[in-house]
Write a structure and sequence with these properties.
Belongs to the multi antimicrobial extrusion (MATE) (TC 2.A.66.1) family. Keywords: Cell membrane, Membrane, Transmembrane, Transmembrane helix, Transport. InterPro entries: DinF-like, MATE_fam, MdtK-like. It is a multi-pass membrane protein. The chain has two domains: about 230 residues, no CATH class; about 210 residues, no CATH class. The protein has about 450 residues and is mostly helical.
């Protein structure tokens, strides 16, 4: 009982500081972490692309394998943030860091299993994805090396998670950029054999990736060691993290199934349609990362307020971040509406692709304001540990909105307009769900631990 007043003081301070400066203080470094790897991957593609189409195709197949693994395990960052933020809000920094310790053990253990399993099945996996032949051989050489970075990638995810939870967002940016900067230097050196290094071609790209991931992983591990907390594995904590992770994995899988289906249907409408679909989808993905930085700020601040026992403060933060995210989204929508002609020309001058892109463009622009609210409230609910609700809402929106319209577009020949209509419906259904949940207030359950019913 004697700790109630300090907890209230912590919570009040968090709410008072959660203005634009505090929100941006978390969101901007987080955005740097989110976009750093996609930017490096574009650089990697540019370097490997000069080796020719075969090497580029091998890298593409290998990147799909590695990317699919890491995409499904983002609970190590998002779930750990939710749990660590509550501990931090309750004034228990050691407990928050311990969430990072246990997430790191989970990440390394899962990573080692993934390395062993995929190394065992790498040949048939590459063959299936590449259709056999020389592309599969190229992909295999890259995957065999790059796979050893998976435990380090997952260690970095866990590190990002607990450090966001304690609102330390600058060091993760430094650690991630340090690793990727080294990879960016090594990549052309090893691929082309510069500065006296051996010419490794595509394998050089994999080695550069592995070295950079090692640097980031070691830096995150060192940050844990500096905290001087127990590194002993605790099965109960790991089990709770995996329960939260289960819901986030199911949610991620529903996203992947939808977008793979959309790409498959777009391909059946011809090369111009699938090219336009991918072009606008990449812009959408980049915008999602941008808005996700504000969602992570919401997650961190809401989790801290709930951990400090301040449900009213958490709701205030939720409203505030959602308003700022919506204002930012409206600005982005206006910018992309104004760039309807100019922006697609930055990527292609093919008249057929441009024609299809212009069809998609207004669906894309219309979704941006919807995304501003949806992504912010996703962050709020993740901060509250309400992953079970988000899982169910996403599945319902996918199964009743996105997926049916994707395949109906193929049956009735609606083209890319039909596919993107499905995405609009998907976003609108998610908006209805998260607005109703936010308004209900049932997510705002206080305490240092995430309530069992929320996971």
């Amino acid at each position: 009982m004697g700790s109630a007043e300090p907890m209230d003081a912590v919570a009040t301070g968090e709410v008072d500081r959660a203005g634009p400066r505090r929100i941006l203080g978390i969101a901007v470094p987080t955005l740097g972490v989110l976009v750093a790897e996609p930017l490096y991957l574009l650089f990697d593609l540019a370097v490997v692309g000069r080796l020719g189409a075969l090497a580029l195709a091998g890298l593409a197949v290998g990147a799909v394998i590695l990317g699919s693994v890491s995409t499904q395990l983002t609970f190590l960052s998002y779930g750990t943030t939710a749990r660590a933020a509550r501990r931090h809000g309750a004034g228990d920094r050691a407990g928050a860091v311990e969430e990072g310790v246990q997430a790191s053990w989970v990440g390394v253990a899962i990573g080692l299993v993934i390395v062993a399993v995929i190394q065992l099945f790498a040949v048939p996996l590459c063959s299936v994805l590449a259709g056999g032949g020389e592309i599969a051989d190229e992909a295999l050489s890259w995957v065999r090396i790059a796979l050893f970075g998976v435990p380090l990638i997952l260690l970095s995810m866990a590190g990002n998670g607990w450090m966001r939870g304690v609102q330390d967002v600058r060091r993760p940016l430094t650690y991630v950029v340090a690793g990727l900067a080294l990879s960016a230097v090594l990549c052309p050196v090893l691929v082309y054999g510069l500065l006296g290094a051996p010419r490794m071609e595509l394998a050089g790209s994999a080695v550069a990736n592995l070295v950079g991931q090692s640097v980031s992983g070691v830096l995150f591990a060192y940050a844990l060691l500096r905290e001087r907390v127990s590194l002993r594995p605790r099965i109960a904590v790991m089990r709770a993290q995996l329960v939260l992770g289960r819901d986030l994995i199911v949610r991620s899988l529903s996203f992947q199934i939808c977008f793979v289906s959309a790409a498959a249907v777009a391909a059946r409408f011809g090369a111009a349609s699938v090219a336009a679909h991918q072009l606008v989808l990449q812009l959408w993905n980049f915008l999602a990362l941008t808005l996700d930085s504000l969602a992570i700020a919401a997650q961190t601040l809401v989790g801290a307020a709930l951990g400090a026992g301040n449900a009213h403060g958490a709701k205030m933060i939720a409203r505030r971040v959602t308003i700022w995210s919506e204002i930012f989204a409206l600005f982005l929508a206006a910018a992309f509406a104004a760039g309807v002609t100019a922006i697609p020309l930055l990527f292609t001058d093919d008249p057929q692709v441009l024609d299809r892109a212009h069809v998609i463009w207004w669906f894309f622009v219309a979704m941006i304001p919807v995304a501003g609210a949806v992504f912010a409230l996703d962050g709020v609910l993740l901060g509250a540990g309400d992953a079970a609700f988000l899982r169910s809402a996403t599945l319902v929106a996918a199964l009743t909105g996105f997926l049916p319209l994707i395949w109906l577009s193929l049956i009735f020949d609606w083209g890319v307009a039909g596919i993107w209509s499905g995405l609009v419906v998907f976003m609108l259904l998610r908006l209805i769900a998260v607005l109703a949940r936010a308004k209900s207030g049932r997510w705002a359950r206080v305490g240092a631990d995430i309530p069992s019913g929320a996971a």
